[in-house]
């Protein structure tokens, strides 16, 4: 009966759709940043999101999630200074809470923050094959956000990074200027740091931005990095101590190293993100372009947005594809990717919401990830799951495709 009821009701409900979402979602924007191409697309897409939600609610399938009760994940610079400081405090709190990952397996995991690094570094295949990359990171971020809120009393949601806001001058940005409301500063200059090799691309290296050493300013200047590096790390020639365990899971106390890098950031500007969303009708194309595959030609920053976003900040542990969540900026980057995926899905929810790449592949856009290509055959997405083990109970992969009602309604958030 439900079908015929909604079939009767829907046309009239849909006919009544106005730009009503602005009364349901609080939009707060930093006046320093006019809406870029992707922000504008996101804004116009919200009316489709609204129509999608009305339809879903009419079919009784929204699992209690509405635009009105959805959490709002905001861009870092759109948060007030007090909100940024609250976020930073929650992350440093997580770094002080005791680890829950099995101690014998991860003697180097010192905190709840490290629990996430421990999972990521040992389950790279489960997180990064073609069918898992987007949904598994959605769950990974969600569980991290829950830990910040439930265990460290954080009252906000995971912020994301709009690279375009920081790409021209990342070092002086609200993310990386090193003041108390930033995500910490640059690394000190280390002449041994040359950058990140990019085989198969021209240029074939993301040249150093001049850092590479220990972070000396801001909230994470005293952070003790412990896990890693692993054999996947593309960093060579720096005085980073070797981990006592072959797989990098042992205790290896050292500083957080960064290279806040404009050469990387310029590969993730809004024009590129807009092209990514609007020029790919199928998920395979979207996935590949995001990963910079095939390598863009005649582009001074041909990295693909995924690679660009990682190397905006990363040296150690951030540059190592296995331990990248060991720099807290990781979560801003993967939030940004989750947002781009969502905007792409919502251009045509009927066909795109549950679209899954249908080739089995790795992450050719990142050093070390090529090796993942053969690590896991693509399973049937319908039965595949996302099992974060000590981080959260398993969920079905397809439940992590819908951020507005997926996972029995646990996912209920929008990006603004
Ligand atoms: C965003 O969309 C809303 C409603 O659709 C519209 O009223 C508003 O002007 C748009 N904002 C910008 C900055 O384009
Ligand atoms: C969070 O708040 C609760 C209740 O006020 C308090 O008992 C707990 O210690 C707080 N946790 C942290 C990590 O601050
Ligand atoms: C930190 O940087 C932000 C972004 O530039 C700025 O708005 C804020 O006032 C700065 N805070 C301090 C204490 O300097
Ligand atoms: Cu990852």
Task: Give an overview of the whole structure.
With 416 residues, the protein is mainly α. The chain has a single domain (82-415), classed as Orthogonal Bundle (di-copper center containing domain from catechol oxidase), CATH 1.10.1280.10. The chain is 34% helix and 7% strand. The chain is built from 14 helices and 10 strands. The strands form 5 sheets. A two-stranded parallel ribbon has the order 1-10. α1 packs across α3 (37-58), α4 crosses α7 (133-152) and α7 crosses α13. The radius of gyration is 21 Å and the shape is globular. The two termini are 36 Å apart. The relative contact order is 0.16. One 2-acetamido-2-deoxy-beta-D-glucopyranose is lined by residues 93, 152-153. This is Tyrosinase copper-binding domain-containing protein. It comes from Bombardia bombarda. One of its GO terms (molecular function) is metal ion binding.
Question: Care to give the gist of this entry?
Answer:
It comes from Bombardia bombarda. The longest helix has 22 residues, at 37-58.
The ordered string of helix (H) and strand (E) elements is HHHEHHHHHEEEEEHHHHEHHEEE
Task: Give every kind of bound small molecule, once each.
Answer: 2-acetamido-2-deoxy-beta-D-glucopyranose, copper (II) ion
Q: What are the low-pLDDT stretches, counting only 5+ consecutive residues below 50?
A: 1-16, 364-376
The beta-strand count equals: 10
In helices, the fraction of residues equals 25-40%
CATH architecture: Orthogonal Bundle
**Number of separate helices:** 14
Mean pLDDT: 92
Shape: globular
For the largest beta-sheet, the strand count, sense and barrel status come to: 2 strands, parallel
SS strand fraction: 5-15%
Distance between the termini: 36 Å
- CATH homology superfamily: Di-copper center containing domain from catechol oxidase
- Structurally, how many domains make up the residues? 1
Kindly name the structural category: mainly alpha
The radius of gyration is 21 Å
Order the strands across the largest sheet as they lie in space.
1-10
């Amino acid at each position: 009966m439900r079908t015929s009821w909604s079939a009767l009701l829907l046309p009239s409900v849909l006919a009544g759709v106005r730009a009503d979402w602005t009364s349901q979602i609080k939009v707060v924007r930093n006046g320093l940043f006019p809406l870029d191409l992707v922000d504008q697309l996101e804004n116009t897409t919200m009316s489709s999101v609204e129509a999608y939600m009305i339809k879903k609610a009419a079919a009784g399938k929204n699992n209690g999630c509405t635009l009105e009760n959805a959490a709002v994940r905001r861009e870092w610079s759109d948060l007030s200074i007090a909100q940024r400081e609250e976020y930073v405090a929650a992350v440093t709190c997580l770094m002080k809470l005791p680890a829950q990952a099995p101690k014998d397996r991860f003697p180097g995991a010192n905190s709840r923050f490290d629990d996430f690094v421990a999972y990521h570094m040992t389950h790279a295949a489960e997180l990064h094959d073609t069918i898992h990359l987007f949904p598994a990171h959605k769950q990974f971020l969600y569980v991290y956000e829950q830990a910040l809120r439930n265990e460290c009393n954080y009252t906000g949601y995971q912020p994301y990074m709009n690279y375009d806001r920081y790409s021209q001058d990342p070092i002086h940005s609200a993310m990386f200027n090193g003041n108390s409301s930033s995500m910490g500063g640059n690394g000190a200059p280390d002449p041994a740091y040359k950058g990140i090799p990019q085989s198969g691309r021209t240029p074939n290296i993301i040249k150093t931005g001049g850092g590479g050493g220990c972070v000396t300013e801001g909230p994470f200047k005293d952070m003790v990095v412990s896990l890693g590096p692993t054999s996947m790390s593309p960093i060579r020639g720096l005085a980073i101590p070797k981990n006592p365990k072959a797989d990098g899971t042992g205790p290896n106390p050292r500083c957080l190293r960064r290279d806040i890098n404009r050469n990387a950031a310029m590969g993730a500007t809004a024009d590129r993100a807009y092209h990514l969303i609007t020029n790919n009708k199928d998920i395979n194309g979207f996935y590949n372009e995001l990963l910079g595959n095939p390598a863009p030609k005649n582009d001074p920053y041909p990295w693909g947005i995924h690679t660009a976003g990682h190397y905006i900040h990363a040296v150690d542990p951030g540059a190592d594809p296995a331990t990248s969540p060991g720099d807290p900026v990781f979560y801003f980057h993967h939030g940004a990717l989750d947002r781009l995926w969502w905007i792409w899905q919502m251009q045509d929810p009927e066909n795109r919401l549950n679209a899954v790449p249908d080739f089995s592949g790795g992450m050719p856009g990142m050093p070390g990830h090529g090796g993942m290509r053969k690590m896991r055959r693509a399973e049937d997405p319908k039965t595949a799951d996302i099992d974060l083990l000590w981080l959260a109970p398993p969920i079905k992969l397809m439940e992590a495709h819908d951020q507005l009602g997926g996972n029995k309604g646990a996912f209920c958030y929008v990006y603004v």
